[in-house]
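REQUEST FORM: STRUCTURE PREDICTION
Request ID: SP-0412
Submitted by: Lab K.M.
Chain count: 1
Length (residues): 101
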Amino acid sequence: HESFVDELIIAAGEPFSDYLPVTDDDPFPTNTTAALYIYSRDKATQLGFWPATLVEDGGAQFQIDADDLASIPDGSWFRIYVTYDGYPPRGWYRGRVWRKD
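STATUS: Completed
RESULT:
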């Protein structure tokens, strides 16, 4: 699986909920895990970490409470890593976090 560039859009007072599908016709193996990390604008500080609430062969679901996102600044960076088959975590999605407050 390659790393896709995307945007993560969050808004004040709203939870983030999104299902990210596998887009390369290469389903996730059984026991795959996924986690979303958000980093500061300079990428030096991790601001948050959330494991996927569901991972299946066709993709992963993320659900993050609004309170957990309140301090995330516009222009932060995110990465989603997947881990499977004993390999180290691999980048799956990456990009900027935009606030729509």
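NOTES: The chain is about 5% helix and 50% strand.
Reviewed by: T.R.
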